[in-house]
Design goal:
Blueprint lengths: L4 H15 L3 H10 L10 H7 L3 H9 L7 H11 L8 H28 L6 H18 L7 H4 L6 H4 L7 H16 L2 H29 L10 H15 L3 H28 L4 H42 L31 H7 L4 E2 L2 H12 L8 H4 L4 E2 L9 E2 L6 H17 L8 H4 L4 H19 L5 E6 L20 E6 L2 H10 L1 H5 L4 H13 L1 H7 L16 H9 L11 E6 L2 E5 L9 E4 H4 L7 H4 L5 E6 L2 E6 L14 E7 L9 E6 L4 H6 L7 H9 L4 E3 L8
Helix pairs in contact: 6-7, 6-13, 10-11, 10-14, 11-14, 12-14, 13-14, 15-21, 18-20, 18-25, 20-21, 20-23, 20-25
């Protein structure tokens, strides 16, 4: 499907609105000007269609680069910047100048040879007179008129007004036919007139084909839209070829003209004794043979170039018709400051996305989601949840940390933060930096770690069989009716189901902006986890099926945290399931964690003997723990995996603490000495002991904690 100018223009406007954060304006635009199958949702693809890769790279090189393609285009036209590559028109101008010069030289040489033909009679005088007129015409050509047009007979100039850039042998055909018409009688001229028209038509088609092969349209030619689209596609592919190719064609073209002129001159000099009729006849045969050979070579080359161009287009250009209609936000995966660490992302992302059809949210599913998340389809997400995304801190020592705006979704943020640290510290094989250096990641690295972490969470929730990713499409998919309160969140969601981990990562990367800086980022990830597990299984995981994942005051419940950490929305943190005999033969099954997790959990409730955290969460595979303290979730982590395998007694190690809600401005490093401070802790005032220390001692009993000159968090 050809790219529509209107769709490209709309995509440029949507990209501008998206980058400026004008979400409501985008929603209004989608309602008044709905998307179609030809809409473009990939920013890199949009740049390629606009042929502005050079402008984009030049913009990235400046100190304060512009953020939108529309601004880059406007700046280019205001300041008159030239593209960093030779455009199609410039290369064609160079080729045309050399071609016109060659034609003029060849014509002058041919006329000089013909003027030397000496024979008696009116015919010879007519030929010489005709040549003198042609020679004077060459000298009197106006600067605005092409030389090769002025050389054509009067009857052929009308067709040349819409057809420019003729090959040299086409010009020779016209001159040959003019001479033959002058030498023969009227009857012979009338017989040859249909052949002449056929020759002109063939030369016109050849010239048009040659212009397409060179990637140029030199004059206004009426054609069908399909032909115009094909020519534009040829031009886009040919522009990227080296200029040397066009210069090589020019040299070959000039060599052909020179060879033809030499053969013509030698042939004419040998035929001066045979009279003008034989001379012109043999000359016509020689030109016809040369023309056929050049024509065959030209058609063969056009065929080869067409096949190569088709292959290039199939490799370079994705199918616009396959783009998802429900997609809203244009991706921007290469806007990081550190381009050297940019992950290798190609149009494979778009191809993978379109292998899986998006399913718009329906009201029944939306009601079920609200019931399991909020308790009722009449309840709504709080403003704290709606405004929360996964935005990283810009503090130098805390660049790994996800920032929480307000209280509420801390359980989701801390769980994802734990897996980001796992990817960053223990699975980041692209760099040989030390663990401390990895805690100061580049924008690209931390973004990539977030994608990998979120994909792992969703894939685990789907039991390693599938994952469902919820994306904000920017427009409503259903009109709420009945007992359902609309708030503009679930109504706009489109769900993509993928059946392998790699595609999950690609889709998340495709829509990274929605999770990082867009509205509803935290909500989208939570919904994705619930749908990946399925609403039915989430309810079955809970001890009480009516339990909600978001509790009072918008806080995350333990079920939601366990869903993200372990892949199951169980209500408890102990190991395995426990059966309770409630009497009279009634057995109550309490569901716990089954098997070791990659990241663990420490709870202050265990210090108060309210619950018991099992070994599966206390001793995870990686030294990273989500800390539950005072109804708030944060993260505690170490840099060495050895602290999980060594004996706890007499062990000394460092732990790092991060709280995204505390407006933390410095790194908090705790030195833990296991089994050395039992007496001092007993004598101390327990009210002055930070809750974090109590949580640490649920894992390392009687441990002392040194805050290393950092103010303890009480």
């Amino acid at each position: 499907m050809a790219v529509s100018v209107e769709e490209v223009s709309s995509s440029v406007v949507r990209e501008y609105l998206s980058r400026k954060g004008l979400k409501r304006t985008i929603a209004c635009m989608d309602e008044e000007h709905p998307r179609t199958e030809a809409s473009i949702n990939n920013r890199s693809h949009l740049r390629q269609i606009l042929n502005m890769e050079g402008l984009y790279r030049k913009n990235k090189a400046v100190s304060s680069p512009l953020k939108t393609l529309l601004e880059i285009i406007v700046k280019y036209h205001i300041e008159g910047f030239k593209s960093d590559r030779i455009t199609c028109s410039e290369s064609d101008a160079l080729w045309s100048a050399r071609t016109v010069s060659s034609i003029a030289n060849s014509a002058a040489a041919t006329l000089a040879v013909m003027s030397e033909v000496k024979a008696e009679g009116d015919t010879t005088a007519f030929v010489v007179s005709k040549h003198n007129k042609l020679r004077s015409a060459v000298g009197e050509v106006s600067p605005s008129q092409p030389i090769y047009t002025s050389l054509l007979p009067e009857t052929d100039r009308l067709s040349s007004q819409n057809q420019t850039g003729f090959w040299a042998h086409d010009l020779e055909d016209h001159k040959s036919q003019t001479l033959m018409a002058s030498l023969q009688d009227k009857e012979s001229f009338m017989k040859r007139e249909p052949e002449k028209k056929t020759s002109i038509t063939e030369s016109t088609q050849r010239s048009r084909t040659n212009r397409i092969r060179r990637g140029m349209m030199a004059g206004p030619i009426a054609s069908t839209p399909q032909e115009s689209n094909k020519k534009r596609q040829y031009r886009k592919v040919e522009v990227s070829q080296p200029l040397l190719r066009k210069e090589e064609e020019s040299r070959q073209f000039e060599d052909g003209l020179l060879t033809t002129a030499v053969h013509q001159k030698s042939s004419e000099s040998s035929q001066t004794e045979n009279g003008p009729a034989d001379c012109v006849g043999r000359q016509q045969e020689l030109w016809s043979a040369t023309d056929r050979k050049q024509r065959e070579n030209s058609f063969e080359k056009v065929k080869q170039d067409t096949q190569m161009t088709t292959k290039l287009k199939s490799l370079i250009r994705p199918n616009v018709a396959d783009l998802d209609v429900s997609e809203m936000v244009l991706d921007d995966i290469d806007d990081d400051d550190d381009l050297r660490e940019l992950s290798k992302v190609s149009f494979q992302r778009t191809a993978e996305e379109h292998r899986y059809a998006g399913r718009p949210m329906d009201q029944h599913t939306a009601m079920e989601l609200k019931a399991v998340l909020l308790g009722s389809s009449l309840n709504c997400f709080s403003i704290e949840w709606k405004n929360q995304g996964f935005t990283f801190s810009e503090t130098h020592d805390l660049r790994y940390g996800i920032v929480q705006r307000k209280g509420g979704p801390c359980g989701v943020l801390a769980s994802i933060q734990a897996f980001v640290l796992k990817k960053l510290l223990f699975e980041n094989t692209e760099t040989s930096n030390t663990s401390l250096q990895r805690l100061r990641p580049s924008n690209t690295t931390r973004r990539k770690c977030f994608v990998l972490a979120a994909a792992e969470v969703l894939w685990r929730a789907g039991e390693g069989k599938k994952a469902i990713i919820a994306i904000n499409s920017g427009r409503n998919h259903f009109t709420p009716t009945g007992h359902y309160k609309s708030e503009g969140v679930l109504e706009k969601i489109t769900c993509f189901t993928v059946n392998n981990l790699k595609d999950t990562q690609l889709l998340l990367e495709q829509h990274i902006d929605q999770f990082e800086t867009g509205l509803f980022g935290c909500i989208l990830l939570t919904i994705s986890a619930v749908l990946s597990r399925s609403i039915e299984k989430v309810r079955d995981d809970m001890d009480v099926p009516t339990t909600t994942l978001i509790g009072a005051h918008g806080y995350c419940t333990q079920e939601l945290v366990n869903l993200l950490l372990c892949g199951r929305a169980v209500s408890n943190v102990f190991d395995n399931d426990v059966e309770l005999d409630s009497g009279n033969g009634n057995i109550t099954l309490l569901k716990g964690v089954k098997g070791h997790c990659d990241v663990g959990l420490l709870s202050l409730f265990e210090h108060y003997n309210i619950c018991k955290v099992g070994a599966y969460l206390k001793t995870p595979r990686y030294p990273i723990w989500v800390v539950c303290s005072e109804s708030h979730f944060s993260v505690l982590f170490g840099l060495q995996r050895e602290l999980l395998t060594n004996q706890d007694k007499g062990l000394e190690f460092d732990l790092y603490y991060y709280d995204g809600l505390a407006n933390q401005q410095e790194e908090i490093r705790l030195t833990v000495s296991a089994g050395r401070s039992a007496l001092s802790c007993q004598d101390a005032d327990t009210d002055l002991i930070p809750p974090l220390e109590h949580c640490i001692r649920t894992r390392w009993k009687d441990a002392s904690v040194n805050w290393n000159d950092t103010e303890p968090i009480l």
